Amino acid sequence: MDRPNYITPAGYAALKAEYDQLFGDERPKLVETISWAAGNGDRSENGDYIYGRKRLREIDRRLGWLSRRMKAAKVVDPTRQEDRSRVFFGATVTIADEDDNQRMLTLVGDDEADAGAGRIGWNSPLARALRGAGVGDLRRVQLPAGEREYEVIEVRYS
Start and end of every Transcription elongation factor GreA/GreB N-terminal domain (predicted)? Predict the structure, then answer.
């Protein structure tokens, strides 16, 4: 990877919880089902066997991806940010557009981004535009809908 995979402690815990659930719970049960189905004879028309093998491949792919992401993760605790007047990783920012519509966003790791919940990925265009901004700063960002200008109203770290 050419850039660090920043992630909050809560985001890392969520990745680890998913890994542990898949590896420690779902995968062993599936292997048991596949073994049982394989013992039933003809595998060509055995739905439990065919579906089980397919699902096992999906789980193994996901486990590999989670493992690589956790290995590359650089956990950053936003509450330990020294300069709280500027937008950095983990900041919760209130911004206003040209029409004075306000939005509250939190800059989080790309693996824990959820735009619907107001959490945007650290490497998204809007997050890149907001990096280093302070209250009152204007930032332009190129979005799919066109260029927009935002004013930073508030910056806080929780």
Answer: 5-75
